[in-house]
Amino acid sequence: MPDPEQLARQEIDALLRPCGWVVQDRNAVNLSVACGVAVRELTFKGGEPDYTLFVDSKAAGSEKTYRERVARLQPQGGDILYSREGGILEIACQIPSNVMLCMGQRMMLIRTARGIAARLIMHWLNSSFILSRVKKLSTGSASPHLNVGEVQIFDMPIPPAAEQQRIFAEVERCLSVVEELEAAVNANQRATRFRQSILDKTFMGEPSSSDQLTD
After folding, report:
1. Contact at 8 Å (CB) between 177 and 210?
2. 84-97 b/e with 16+ CB inside 10 Å = b?
3. Spatial separation of the C-alpha atoms in residues 155 and 146, rounded to whole Å
4. Is 10 or 85 the better-scoring residue by pLDDT?
5. Cβ(137)–Cβ(150) below 8 Å
6. Among residues 135, 160, 175, 189, which is most buried (max CB within 10 A)?
7. Are 24 and 40 in contact (CB under 8 A)?
8. Beta-carbon neighbour count of residue 98 at 10 Å?
């Protein structure tokens, strides 16, 4: 059974890859395979960070850069990262509790108010309702992007806390079924459609049950 560190690494890998990063082990480094490469556990004089990020074959960031970028607000576990520019536009993910990071210029940090489930916000941002709105707002530009102000005025219905938890639990349960289907059929297109359907029905109607998913 994987230990907590291995589970955390798997979770971080799953966040990095959809954003365009190629993840590599330190004993099999090839920085030329992509613009962005994340290398696990490289050894430096100051220690052994969990990941070292390379952009165009150059290590990205330093402690000074990190301090500058977190001076206004330091990302923390449970916050939502939202990509708003370029090739990684319109992806939302939640920061794991045991990760220390700073953001680049293409990312937006969302910290929810008390009483609002952050993971529900993440699912809402990834729903087709918001994705279609983002596409309309970013169409016609050589470098598609969203302004922070445009994201801030997105309308989202906020149900009572108990209802949020019910919706969140149902979405997570249904998505777990989708993940099982993806593993069983090697990421078959049918599983992808189910995933989007769950998000659509959550924010535009009632979520599907796992029984419906397995029909």
Report:
1. yes
2. bbeebbbbbbbbee
3. 15
4. 10
5. yes
6. 175
7. yes
8. 13
* pLDDT tens digit sequence for 21-50: 899 988 889 988 888 899 988 876 656 778
16's CB contacts (< 8 A; 6+ apart) are 23, 38, 51
Q: Do 214 and 141 touch, CB atoms closer than 8 A?
A: no
* Beta strands per DSSP E along the chain: 22-25, 36-40, 51-55, 58-59, 80-83, 92-94, 107-110
Tokens of 105: 């210029």
Q: Give the CA-trace dihedral at 19, 189, 7, 101, to 10 degrees.
A: 10
- What pLDDT was estimated at residue 213? 47
Residue 115's CB is within 10 A of a number of other CB atoms, namely: 9
What secondary structure does DSSP assign to 84-120, as a single string?
-BGGGTT-EEE--TT------TTEEEE-PPTTS-HHH
Q: What is the pTM of this model?
A: 0.54
Q: How far apart are CA 154 and CA 152, in angstroms?
A: 6
Beta pairing partners, 40:
25, 51
Separation of alpha carbons 88 and 143, rounded Å:
11
Alpha-carbon distance of 188 to 149, in angstroms, equals 37
Q: Which residue has the tokens 């979520």?
A: 207
Beta strand 107-110 with 80-83 is antiparallel
Single-letter residue type at 65: T
